[in-house]
């Protein structure tokens, strides 16, 4: 149950670079200044906005993610600085669940005499 919660939490956190969010708000409000490429060290050519150091554009999500780690297929989101903690908790609790499940199933597999067989009638 905890693994599901942390997986949900990791997938719902917005991973987009905060600098891009701020610039998009300025564009909407009409307060965005003319862009000068020399003022910024890091720039995303896809978003056409400046980004923080360590940000990377994810092609699957089509957004820049701050401290991008990877795009997770299982959670269908990017893993970055904003949700990395929740992702680690998701992995830890998933592993705990699998270990407990294996410990409960293994004795049944080892004791073949208790296993039931399906009889086929013709």
Low-confidence spans: none
In DSSP terms (H or I, runs of 4 or more residues), the helix count works out at 3
Helix content: 40-55%
Strand order, sheet with most strands: 1-2
Biggest sheet statistics? 2 strands, antiparallel
Give the DSSP E fraction (strand runs of 2 or more residues).
5-15%
Q: Give the C-alpha Rg.
A: 23 Å
SS-based structural class? alpha+beta
Q: What is the count of structural domains?
A: 1
What's the total number of strands? Answer: 6
Q: What is the CA-CA span between the terminal residues?
A: 43 Å
Overall pLDDT score: 77
Categorize the overall geometry: elongated
**SSE string:** HHEEEEEEH
Question: Summary?
Answer:
With 122 residues, the protein is an alpha+beta fold.
Written overview of the protein:
41% of the residues lie in helices and 13% in strands. By secondary structure, the chain is α+β, with helices and mostly antiparallel strands. The longest helix is centred in the last third of the chain and has 27 residues, at 84-110. Strand 1 and strand 2 form a beta hairpin. It has one domain (2-111). It starts with a helix and ends in a 12-residue tail after the last helix. The protein is elongated. A two-stranded antiparallel sheet has the order 1-2. A two-stranded antiparallel sheet has the order 3-4. The protein contains 3 helices and 6 strands; from the N terminus they run ααββββββα. 19% of the residues are buried. Helix 1 (2-12) packs antiparallel against helix 3 (84-110). The mean pLDDT is 77.
